[in-house]
Amino acid sequence: MQNTVIIALDFPDRSNTESFLRNFHGESLFVKVGMELFYREGISIVNTLKEKGHRVFLDLKLHDIPNTVHKAMKNLAAAGVDMVNVHGAGGISMMAAAKEGLYAGSSSGQNPLLIAVTQLTSTSEEMLNEELLIKGCSLDQAVLHYALNAKKAGLDGVVSSVNESTVIKEVCGSQFITVTPGIRLAGGKVHDQIRVATPRDAAIAKADYIVAGRSITEAEDPRAAYTQIYQEWSGQQHEITYR
Ligand SMILES: O=c1ccn([C@@H]2O[C@H](COP(=O)(O)O)[C@@H](O)[C@H]2O)c(=O)[nH]1
Questions:
Q1: What's the predicted TM-score (pTM) here?
Q2: Which of 83, 86, 149, 215 is 20 to 30 A from 105 via CA?
Q3: Which helix H or strand E contains 200, and what residues bound it?
Q4: How far is Cα 201 from Cα 52, in angstroms, rounded to an integer?
Q5: Taking the CA of residue 42 as centre, how many other CA atoms within 13 Å lie in the half-sphere pointing to its CB?
Q6: Can you tell me which atom of ligand 1 is nearest the CA of 217?
Q7: Is 64 within any annotated ligand binding site?
C-alpha cells in the first residue's frame, strides 16, 4: 500500500531540509516541495529527493495564462515529479493546458498526478465573500464548483480541506482524488490555517492524501509526530518503507 501522508518540507534551504530528513534515515517518504524551498534550490532539490527514493509533490500552484502554464508544466514534468498542481482559479482552459503540457513533458511512462487548488485552507467563508468578492455562494459550494471545473479539465483531483472532501467525492466520483492540507493533531497549534482537521477526520471524510507540515517539522520529535499522524490517519501501525 502506498504511503499517503505527505510531509510538507517548508524549509528555507537544502541544508535545513537534509537535516530534518535525517530523522527518517533510510525511509522512503512522500514529501512536498513548496515555493519557499523551490525558489531557493530550484529543480535540483527535486532531483535529490527523487534520487534518495522519496515521492515528490511539487506544490507550486501554477496560475497564469494557458500557454504559459502549458510550457511551465512541460518543464516540471521532465523533473520526474509524482504530483503537481495549479490554482483552479485559472479556469478550465488553463487546467486543460496544464495537463497537456504535463503529459507532453513526461517521459517516465507514468504521468504525474495533476490536481487543482480549490480554495486555500487559509480561506474562510467570510474572506471568500467579503475580501475576494466571491459572493452568492458558500465556501463549500465554491470548492465544489472548482472541483467540478478541475474534473471537466481532466485533472486527477483537487486540493481542498478535509471538510469538503466527502462531498467532492460524492459528486466527482470516488476516483477523483482529494489532497487535504490543514492537518492538525487535536489541540495542536493552528497557525495561519482556517479549515483544519485531524488525521482521523480526514480518514472519515475519505480523503486520499493528507498534507502535514508544521505539526511534524516543528515538533520536538518529528518522527514521533509523523508516526502519530500516520497511525491516526491509517488506523494502522506505521510500517517503514526502506529505500
Ligand atoms: O490550500 C492549501 C494548499 C496548500 N497548502 C500547503 O500545505 C502545507 C501545509 O502546511 P502546515 O504547516 O501543515 O500548515 C503548506 O506547505 C501549504 O503551502 C495549504 O496549507 N493549503
A1: 0.96
A2: 149
A3: helix 199-204
A4: 31
A5: 2
A6: 12
A7: yes
Which atom, in ligand 1's list, is nearest to the CA of 119? 1
Pairing verdict, β 177-180 and 157-159: parallel
Closest-CA residue, ligand 1 atom 16, reads 8
All domains of the chain in start order, with CATH: 5-234 (3.20.20.70)
Q: Is the CB of 157 under 6 A from ligand 1?
A: no
Task: Count Cβ atoms within 10 A of the Cβ of residue 173 and give its class: 0-12 exposed, 13-18 middle, 19 or more buried.
Answer: exposed
Predicted confidence (pLDDT) per residue in 30-46, tens digit: 999 999 999 999 999 99
Count other C-beta atoms under 10 Å from residue 58's C-beta.
25
Q: Is 60 annotated as a binding residue?
A: yes
pLDDT in tens, 59-93: 999 999 999 999 999 999 999 999 999 999 999 99
- Regarding the beta carbon of 85 and ligand 1, being less than 6 Å apart is answered no
Residues marked as catalytic: 61
ipTM over 0.90: yes
Q: Nearest C-alpha to atom 21 of ligand 1 is from which residue?
A: 121
Q: What pLDDT, on a 0 to 100 scale, did the predictor assign at position 222?
A: 98
Whether 58 is in the pocket of ligand 1, judged by its Cβ within 6 Å, is no
